[in-house]
Every structure is written in C-alpha cells, then in structure tokens.
Design a protein that fits this description.
Layout lengths: L1 H42 L29 E11 L3 E12 L2 E13 L4 H11 L7 H4 L4 E7 L3 E9 L6 E4 L5 E4 L9 H9 L4 E5 L1
Antiparallel strand pairs: 1-2, 1-8, 2-3, 3-5, 4-5, 6-7
C-alpha cells in the first residue's frame, strides 16, 4: 500500500514538472514567433506594397541626339546714326559662313525713341506690342527666328534667316495686315561679295573669329 502511494506521488511529481515545462513554453514561444514574423515582413515586403523606385535606371537606352554645333565664321557689318522722324536707328548685319559660303544672315536693328514726342511714343508702343511675347505668325515661319529686347526707350530686334530652309514668305499680323519676310542673300553665296555690297552702302565690316 505504501509502495502504491509512493508510485502515485512520483506520477504526480512528473505531471507537475511537465506542466511547468508546458506553461514555460507557452509563455516563451509566442513572442519568439511574433518577432520572427515581424522581421520577415521587414526584410521581404509584399510586392503590392513596394513603392515604385524614383531612382534613374542605368539600363541602356536610346540617347537623345545633341543639336549640331554651328561653328560658322562670321562677318559683322554695322552702320549707326540713321536718322528718322520717330527714332534714331543703328543697323547691324551678320553673315554666318563656312569657308566663304554663306549659310545664315541676321539683321539687327536698334531704335532709340523720343518718348516726349507723342508720335515717337506711339511708334515705340506699337513696336513694343510685338516684342514680348514673339507673335505666333513669326514663330511658324520655317528657317526664320525673331528676337526682341526692350528697355525704357530703346528696342532691339534681330531677324535671323537660315538660308538652307527659308523661302520668302508673306505673313498676316494680328491686325490683319501683311508683312513680307525676305532676304536678298542666298545659300552658299560668296560672303566677300555680300560684304562688299554693304561696304558700298556705307557699312563698316569686320570678320569675327
């Protein structure tokens, strides 16, 4: 009888120890699994939650071609002090050439207005109205560019003709009037001939490297 009671006490002891071990595992394992799962989510986020990368890729692609560099030589011809009833004007013509063959020509006009004169002021304001922004009817002409810069009483305009693509053109301005865009020079014309013609008109010409 005492032996059975001793065996029963031993079983109870084993069950008690086992219960303690099970309770200990139940307390330790859930936090451990939670930490492991959290680390997995940090290391391997789901594809749907990954934001698109904004960094530029190094994958090879088609590079945009750079615009051709125009290494033209230049001849600049100028004449100043042109008197008019509404303004004083200085003129400058620039020939862009390659081995004496004319490629482009630009006309620069700088007009100084007397704003105390009502007629001169009116002319200044009319010219200023097409200075900024450049009118659309100028921007749509192939081979032609128009630039304008204005100060308090002076307006400088530059008309440039690319002789490889420009043809004489008539444009209609915003007021319904007509303006002829034209140049007397042509592609591959000898620049010395063009220069001589202006020098005979009183221009001073010099080459620019």
């Amino acid at each position: 009888m005492e032996e059975e009671e001793r065996k029963l006490s031993t079983k109870e002891w084993i069950l008690c120890i086992g219960g303690i071990v099970v309770l200990t595992l139940l307390m330790i394992l859930p936090p451990t699994f939670r930490i492991l799962f959290d680390e997995d989510e940090m290391v391997m986020p789901s594809p749907s939650s990954t934001p698109p990368s904004s960094e530029p890729t190094d994958a090879p692609g088609v590079e945009e071609p750079e615009p051709p560099v125009e290494n033209y030589e230049k001849v600049v011809c100028s004449r100043s002090g042109e008197g008019a009833s509404l303004y004083q004007e200085s003129l400058e013509v620039t020939f862009f050439h390659d081995s004496q063959s004319l490629k482009k020509v630009s006309y620069q006009s700088t007009k100084m207005y007397d704003l105390s004169n009502p007629a001169s002021l009116d002319a200044y304001q009319r010219t200023l109205s097409i200075c900024s922004p450049v009118p659309l009817y100028y921007r749509n002409v192939l081979g032609f560019t128009y630039e304008c810069d204005a100060s308090s009483s002076t307006i400088t305009t530059v008309q440039t003709y690319d002789l490889s693509s420009f043809t004489n053109t008539t444009v209609t301005n915003d007021e319904g009037g007509y303006e002829v865009l034209t140049t007397s020079y042509f592609l591959n014309q000898n620049v010395d001939v063009a220069r001589l013609g202006l020098e005979n008109e009183g221009y001073y010409c010099h080459s620019v490297e």
